[in-house]
Amino acid sequence: MTIIVTGGAGFIGGNFVHYMLEKYSNYRIICLDALTYAGNLETLQDVMENPNFRFIKGDIADRALVYSLFEEEKPDIIVNFAAESHVDRSIENPEIFLRSNVIGTSVLLDACRKYGIKRYHQVSTDEVYGDLPLDRTDLFFTEETPIHTSSPYSASKAAADLLVQAYGRTYHLPITISRCSNNYGPYHFPEKLIPLMIANCLNDKPLPVYGKGENVRDWLYVEDHCRAIDMIIHKGEVGEVYNIGGHNERTNLQVVKTIIQALGKSESLITYVTDRPGHDMRYAIDPTKIKNDLGWEPQVLFDEGIQKTIQWYLDHKTWWENIINGEYQTYYEKMYANR
Ligand code: NAD
Ligand code: DAU
């Protein structure tokens, strides 16, 4: 089995590459990644010498490159993680989100049509469903929830989903889509809430909480997401959408306070800053379908997963310090200095 994993030098894609190489000793895993600011070869350092692994630096929107890769490797499965993934960056500059997330997806789909494929899997997000009100804790996102996006990021991911479904229906491409809630765990880029708060806490820097910190996210340990995708590409039904999430809802403030407590720091580090424009209030996944159809359930609860994650950041300081000491500083200054 040959699998092309796009975006495999990023957070979830990198975890997926490790997961698959460890689980399937007879699979060939090919990572195609443009190495944007979010792509990091240090994440793949452990597997670079693995004979079952190949890394290619390239853009999924580069048609010539993608076609030549398909011609050479004749992949059985594509798992598309490659995307611009940060909501705040999409608010600053939407265009790159359209190129990578929409055009990039269309190029991959065209390549699948041209060369044939056993499965194209699109890694999507629960953000395509918009948000839920805080005072309706009885409501959850199901696969039937209408698409209703808030940010340029989520709009670009929704556009990609629709395109994937259109290729499934019109060209009978064997596609699946998964929509997962917020991930956390090793190799998470420190622009996102959890790793940003861990890094700032360890450096005794202010912890910038947007608005009142009452927004709710449904946190999933990244390995549980990888296991779900593994199940979908092997056992999932062609044409289907699967929601992935594990009922681990927390307010942002609860998450930040948990990190502060675990690191023995003071809550006086919390700094309330201007809210994110269009900020989604609550995400919450109903995972009944993937549980009933494929037998997937999360194995790591938030209280355990957050401690494992904090420990990983303590044990891998060089990985994140190399990031925050580089061009990330300019980003941080731009996004947070006048907030
Ligand atoms: P990330 O930003 O950490 O990594 C993205 C990777 O894609 C990087 O390695 C980057 O170099 C690469 N990339 C970006 N544009 C590319 C292009 N045009 N061609 C090739 N490579 C490109 O993202 P992540 O958090 O790991 O998210 C991965 C996927 O999962 C995304 O599609 C995202 O929408 C989705 N997702 C993320 C979460 C989450 O909580 N992080 C939850 C649900 C779904
Ligand atoms: O739900 C899945 C989505 O989760 C993925 O599709 C996205 O790729 C991923 O980035 C994530 O989106 P969020 O916007 O939920 O994640 P983020 O870590 O940016 O923010 C989580 C919450 O924390 C959100 O309510 C905003 C808030 N926040 C974030 C940052 C970076 C803060 O309060 N302060 C911050 O500095």
SSE topology:
Elements: E1 2-6, H1 11-23, E2 28-33, E3 53-57, H2 63-73, E4 77-80, H3 87-92, H4 95-115, E5 119-125, H5 152-171, E6 175-180, E7 183-184, H6 193-202, E8 207-210, E9 216-218, E10 220-221, H7 222-235, E11 241-244, E12 249-251, H8 252-262, E13 270-273, H9 288-294, H10 302-315, H11 317-324, H12 328-336
Parallel strand pairs: 1-2, 1-4, 2-3, 4-5, 5-6, 6-11, 7-10, 8-13
Antiparallel strand pairs: 9-12
Helix pairs in contact: 1-7, 2-4, 4-5, 6-8
Bound molecules: nicotinamide-adenine-dinucleotide and 2'deoxy-thymidine-5'-diphospho-alpha-D-glucose.
Average pLDDT metric? 98
Q: Per CATH, which architecture?
A: 3-Layer(aba) Sandwich
Under CATH at level 1, the class stands as: Alpha Beta
Helix content: 40-55%
Number of domains: 1
Distance between the termini: 49 Å
In the CATH hierarchy, the third-tier topology is known as: Rossmann fold
Q: Low-confidence runs (pLDDT<50, min 5 residues)?
A: none
* Number of contiguous helices: 12
* CATH H-level superfamily: NAD(P)-binding Rossmann-like Domain
Class per helix and strand makeup: alpha/beta
Alpha carbon gyration radius: 19 Å
Q: Going across the major beta sheet, what is the strand order?
A: 3-2-1-4-5-6-11
